Give the backbone structure.
Amino acid sequence: MKPHPAPAGMHPREFVAFIAAVMAVNALGVDLMLPALADIGRDLSVSTPNHRQWIVTAYMIGFGAGQLVYGPLADRLGRRPVLIGTLAGFVAAAIFAAGSVSFAGLLGARLLQGLMSASTRVLAVAIVRDGASGRQMARTMSIAQMIFFLVPILAPTIGQALLAFGPWRFIFYALGAFAALVLAWTLVRLPETLPVTRRVPISLAALRTSYALTLTNRFSIGYAIAASLTFGGILSFVSSAQQIFVDEFNAADRFTLLFAVCAGAMGIASFANSRLVERLGTRLISQTAVLVLIGLSLLHVLLIQAGVETLTSYIVFQACSMTCIGLCGSNFGAMAMEPVGHIAGTASSLQGFITSIGAVLVSLVIGQSYSGTTLPLAIGYLAIGIALLAIIYVIEGGQLFRARLSPQ
């Protein structure tokens, strides 16, 4: 197997670990405080349980909006200075969040955190794309995501441990400390991956051209929308997990373990994808996963409607659904970037905006529908699967399970 392409001075394994760490800043920003949602609600007088989901949602709104800015900046100034500046901003936002004395103040700090962490998504993709494309890019991103998916497995446990030693504010200090470590790694080890000759001036004409190309290419826009649906499925689970496990199934003592089982399924899927994608291709793997997701979700809805849902059945269906989503994520991202690699920063930012804001809307519809049962989540996954199949059918011109001429 070919080694992963890496910038000069970095070993391929270090590079993959670095990309995973950059991505983990965002993952920790979402998942680390999940065990503390109830404590935050009590401390800041949040009376409606579903409103606690806004702690995740506000972050994701900032995360989506910020991506429109960082792509053009990264294409003009380079990847390294933008990453350094936003990691420093994330550290400051974490400190602001830790000092919040009202729910509105906390949401404002979370919005700022999301704005800062938006660069991690844009730059992780752009830095990898600077040296790879197609299946090779998908393999590198899959390995990074495999490591990255360990974060959702460990984050709630780490968050629970922090709560054992102090209030929920400790969690935000820990977020700031991790971002500071990644910032130091960037300063010491990451070279600039975008040559001066490939940098694009920031101008309305250049942005118009890049946006037009990204939005009019059916593979770029189509797979970005597809990625938004799968990401929305993940956010729906994350934002309602504490309510489902603690309130519905009375499994507060096993919350971190059960959450880890579901999140771990995505890590396993990403590892399998990294091993199979160069042989089978992004399309065969992702399209098969979509069909399986539809079948699983339909069975899950029928089981819930029959009144025989249990904690065990929910874990099985949720973990299997996460596996399908894990097989789609990095492949959709690689396929969306393939035709726009020459404007990777701007394209990644626009695709990231579409993916993140679309995911927020999906998760709001599904998450805010939670009413004490897992039915809204199961129906939501079924709808996501059907919509994905329709989108892929249009993108690929009705030719499902057929590889294109390009090596994907």
Observations:
- Residues 403-408 have pLDDT under 50 and may be disordered.
- The radius of gyration is 20 Å.
- Residues 218-248 form the longest helix (31 residues).
- The chain is about 75% helix and 0% strand.
